[in-house]
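Just curious. Invent one:
>
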Amino acid sequence: MCLTEHNQLTLLHDLLDEQLLYKTVELEEYRQIKKLVQAMICRKHTDASLKNILPEIYYYSMKGETVHSYKEHIIHNEMNIEKWLKTIKKARMKSV
């Protein structure tokens, strides 16, 4: 099943938002985030501000796959995640 851009943004937002809320994550979620980011980077019409943060999110997820403490990784990146969520939310509103 192919997800629309809006669906991808919603899923990415929800995954990152839950990490902030619960300070936990499953390894598979990091992999899912990486796949979503790769798909969005490949789109020709991805919002410019979103394109700027996608590599950061990808690196965060890649690093998250190898950390010893998911909670510490999330806490260490909390400000970045909050910034990403705002950017994703704006892009999601434009994609409707």
In short: DSSP finds five helices and no strands in the chain.
